[in-house]
Amino acid sequence: MKKVLVTGAAGFLGYHLSLRLHQAGYELTLCDNFTRGKKDSSFDRICEQKGARFLDLDLTNQKSFQELGNSYDAVYHLAAINGTRFFYEKPDQVLRTNLLSTIYLLDWFKNSRSKKFIFTSSSETYAGTIELKEGPLPTPEKVPLCIPDIFNPRFSYAGSKIAGELLVVHYGRQQNFATQIVRYHNVYGPRMGKEHVIPQFILRALAKEDPFKIFGQHHKRSFCYVSDAIEATIQLAECDRLIGEIVHIGNPKEEIEMIELAEKICKLAQWQPKFEIHPAPEGSVSRRLPDTRKMEEELHFKPQIDLTTGLNKTYEWYLKNS
């Protein structure tokens, strides 16, 4: 039985990762302080299972690390403040939480006798590069990263993930331990919260919003269903060929404009509102399309859930749980 630590375990991705790891028979230590994660019956059920323990810890407090233990086969670091609203409302806390938790966890890891550190990053790291038309589409892992405007609070999250990638790469190289970086691309699914575009559209359609507001109608994103993202992540953690590498995880075949996404979701809700079109927020990249050849060729993994199926699954969950 492999022993793993998941930080941010009560969050959207952390929960789905923890559930999948538990189903596969891993021994789990799950860590969260519910700043963004959700304490609900679904998460409690995982924590109550044999082979799982939960720690309510603030990873920006160095004293917390005394409780983590050691000798993990893998540490999945997902803990972070995410969600566009938070980027604008409290960018200082986004930066502080995301950076301190990563620095302190890396400091702990180098003495923990653990084997592999997996850092979850984001396509937001290169969004500024694409918006400045300095990077290709589809976008590979080696694209340059940039922050086009440090005064725009939106880039607090992207900046924290760029710095996080730098920290993970160079701690690993200097301290001689195994690291991997996942860049997620618009992962969605059940239990996602309310801060991202798909759950927002679903909840607004269920509330019969009219007019239905859309910001950046022609902006495009490539959406990846959560079970595919989690399966690819676990396969990466099990792959020793990609030590020290960055891997894009996403589904480039499911690119869609925001107006089309709104139409699909409103159709699921049997709602036909008038669409009210607004400009996209400043700093929002007009298009993100990942190059996932490394995921496909090195991990031999391709997403299995198409957008129509994934939206149906997600809509049904929010219909029952909103």
Walk me through this protein's architecture.
The chain is an alpha/beta fold. It has a single domain (3-192, 225-252, 291-300), classed as 3-Layer(aba) Sandwich (Rossmann fold). Helices cover 39% and strands 17% of the residues. The chain has eleven helices and 13 strands. The strands form four sheets. It has a seven-stranded parallel β-sheet with strand order 3-2-1-4-5-6-11, with helices on both faces. Strands 7-10 form a two-stranded parallel sheet. The protein has a two-stranded parallel sheet with strand order 8-13. Strand 2, helix 2 (41-47) and strand 3 form a beta-alpha-beta unit. The longest helix has 21 residues, at 155-175. It is globular.
